[in-house]
Amino acid sequence: MKNTEKRHAGGLIIRQKEPNNLETPFDQVDSFLTPMELFYIRSHFPTPKLKLASYQLHVDGAVRKPFSLSYNELRDMPSETRGHFGVRRQ
Q: Is a pLDDT exceeding 60 seen at residue 1?
């Protein structure tokens, strides 16, 4: 690690604070598989500041039944993580 590099609490190298630009430290990777906690973070816009008590996500438009979810309802929903590894074209 260079003396000028600052580290995020998770061990990632901070390249930019706002918007988040955190880099995987190569000295902590010992395999072709990167652990989730060391996976890089790139944000193109600052993180929005939400008023959680009044936040509502509205889903409408080309849907059968428009609906809204509060922040807590959204957080309580089951989550699923999927990876995208590119499309191989011939």
A: no
